From TrEMBL:
Positions annotated as active site in the UniProt record: 45
Superkingdom: Bacteria
Organism for this UniProt entry: Jonesia denitrificans (strain ATCC 14870 / DSM 20603 / BCRC 15368 / CIP 55.134 / JCM 11481 / NBRC 15587 / NCTC 10816 / Prevot 55134) (Listeria denitrificans)
Bias (Polar residues) ranges: 333-345
Catalytic reactions of this protein: 2,5-diamino-6-hydroxy-4-(5-phosphoribosylamino)-pyrimidine + H2O + H(+) = 5-amino-6-(5-phospho-D-ribosylamino)uracil + NH4(+); 5-amino-6-(5-phospho-D-ribitylamino)uracil + NADP(+) = 5-amino-6-(5-phospho-D-ribosylamino)uracil + NADPH + H(+)
Record's cofactor remark: Binds 1 zinc ion.
CMP/dCMP-type deaminase domain sequence ranges: 1-118
Functional pathway: Cofactor biosynthesis; riboflavin biosynthesis; 5-amino-6-(D-ribitylamino)uracil from GTP: step 2/4; Cofactor biosynthesis; riboflavin biosynthesis; 5-amino-6-(D-ribitylamino)uracil from GTP: step 3/4
Ligand binding (substrate): 162, 178, 198, 201, 258
Upper taxonomic lineage: Bacteria, Bacillati, Actinomycetota, Actinomycetes, Micrococcales
Residues that, per the record, bind NADP(+): 148, 164, 190, 194, 260-266
Region (Disordered): 330-354
Name this polypeptide is given: Riboflavin biosynthesis protein RibD
Length: 354
C-alpha cells in the first residue's frame, strides 16, 4: 500500500481525489502500478490494469491495492468496479472509503460479485486527500486561490499599475491552468479595474470555465467578463460560504479565486481555500496594494498559516517562481478560519491578475 500511496502523490490536486493503485501477481510476484492524472483521465485502477496487461500479469491470481474505494458510477469515465470485475481480480485491498454520495459503494458492488474486499484504513490515505474529503463532506467545490506578487508581497504599485507583475511564461501557464477548473471567481474591484475576460486563451476550442463576478455591484452590461457564450454568472453576495455552495449547486467542483486581495482574503479567512497558488516575481515595489487583505490579522499570533504542498513542487516559469501551499491545522485539527463577521469582501480597487 505504501507504493500505492507514492503513486497517488504523483497526481494533481483538484476536483478529483489523489488515488494510486498497485496490482500484485500472487504467483510471480510481479507488480503493476497506476495513478490518476486528473479529471478526464484514466482512474488509478484502470491505469494499473493497463500496466498489468502490458506486463503480462495473471489478473485472475492478483491482488489490487488502492488508496481510495473504487468508484461505482458513470461520470466522465466508466465505473472502476466494472473494470475490476471484467479483469477478474479476486481480491482488492482499500485504504480509504469514498465519501462521495454518487461514486461511493464500490466495495459493496465488488463483494456482491464475489470479490474479497479488505478495507484497511490508513491515516496517510486520509491526509493525502484531506482537503478534498473536507469539500466532499461540506458539499462545496475544491477551492484554489491564485496570487501574483512581488518579492515583498505587493500585487500592484503605489500608482495602481499591476500589468504585468509576472512575465509571459507565468501568465501563459496560468491561462493554461484555467482549463482545470469549472469556475473562476473575481470581485467587483477586479471586474471594474482590470476588465478581465477570464477565458482560457491558449486553447480557445477547449472547455471554458464559468466566469463569476462576486459582489453586490451590478456587472456593467459591456464588461468583458460577460462574454457572449452564456458562461457568466453574477453572485450578489460577499459571503464566501454562500458563493461556494451556490457554485456547487451549479455543478462547479473545482473553482479558482483570482482576485482581488479582499476577495481572496475573505475566502482565506473563511477557511475555504484548499490550495494557495503563489506566483512570485523577482522585483521589489516597496509599497502599493498587498496581495491579500486580511481583516482578522492584527498580530503575529493571528496569522493564517500554511505548509508547502508536498504534491505540487515549486516551478520556475521564466524568471518567476510558482509555489503551492495547503492550510496548516492547529492543535485542535482546525484549519484557518475566523468568524463570518470578518469574512465579508468589500468592493474596491483589486488588481491581482497574473
Amino acid at each position: 500500500m505504501n507504493v500505492a500511496l507514492e503513486q497517488a502523490a504523483r497526481g494533481v490536486r483538484g476536483a478529483n481525489p489523489l488515488v494510486g493503485a498497485v496490482i500484485v501477481d500472487e504467483h510471480s510476484g510481479d507488480v503493476a502500478v497506476g495513478h490518476h492524472r486528473g479529471r478526464g483521465t484514466a482512474h488509478a485502477e484502470v491505469d494499473a490494469l493497463r500496466c498489468a496487461r502490458d506486463r503480462g500479469l495473471r489478473l485472475d491470481a492478483a491482488t489490487m491495492y488502492v488508496t481510495l474505494e473504487p468508484c461505482n458510477h458513470y461520470g466522465v469515465t466508466p465505473p472502476c468496479t466494472d473494470a475490476i470485475l471484467d479483469a477478474g481480480i479476486p481480491r482488492v485491498v482499500i485504504a480509504g472509503e469514498d465519501p462521495h454520495d454518487v461514486a461511493a459503494g464500490g466495495a459493496h458492488t465488488l463483494r456482491a460479485a464475489g470479490v474479497v474486499v479488505d478495507i484497511v484504513p490508513l491515516d496517510a490515505a486520509v491526509s493525502l486527500n484531506e482537503r478534498w474529503l473536507t469539500a466532499q463532506r461540506e458539499r462545496r467545490p475544491f477551492i484554489r486561490a491564485k496570487i501574483a506578487q512581488s518579492l515583498d508581497g505587493f500585487s500592484a504599485a503605489l500608482d495602481g499599475t499591476s500589468q504585468w507583475i509576472t512575465g509571459p511564461q507565468a501568465r501563459e501557464y496560468a491561462h493554461k491552468q484555467r482549463h482545470l477548473v469549472d469556475a473562476i471567481v473575481v470581485g467587483t474591484g477586479t471586474v471594474l479595474a482590470d476588465q478581465p475576460t477570464l477565458t482560457a486563451r491558449y486553447d480557445p476550442g477547449g472547455a471554458q470555465p464559468l466566469r463569476v463576478h462576486m459582489g453586490h455591484t451590478t456587472t456593467p452590461p459591456d464588461a468583458p467578463i460577460r462574454g457572449a457564450d452564456g458562461r457568466f454568472v453574477h453572485l450578489p453576495t460577499h459571503d464566501p460560504n454562500l458563493a461556494a455552495h451556490q457554485l456547487y449547486e451549479r455543478g462547479a467542483r473545482d473553482i479558482l479565486i483570482e482576485g482581488g486581495p479582499r476577495l481572496i482574503g475573505a475566502f482565506l479567512e473563511a477557511g475555504l481555500v484548499d490550495l494557495l497558488e503563489v506566483y512570485t516575481a523577482p522585483m521589489l515595489l516597496g509599497g502599493g496594494t498587498t496581495s491579500t487583505a486580511l481583516s482578522s490579522v492584527a498580530s503575529l499570533g493571528d496569522a493564517l498559516r500554511f505548509l508547502p504542498d508536498p504534491i505540487a513542487q515549486p516551478m520556475r516559469l521564466g524568471v518567476d517562481l510558482l509555489t503551492h501551499y495547503i492550510p496548516r491545522h492547529d492543535s485542535d485539527g482546525q484549519t484557518n478560519s475566523v468568524d463570518a463577521v470578518n469574512t465579508q469582501a468589500v468592493p474596491g480597487k483589486d488588481n491581482t491578475h497574473v
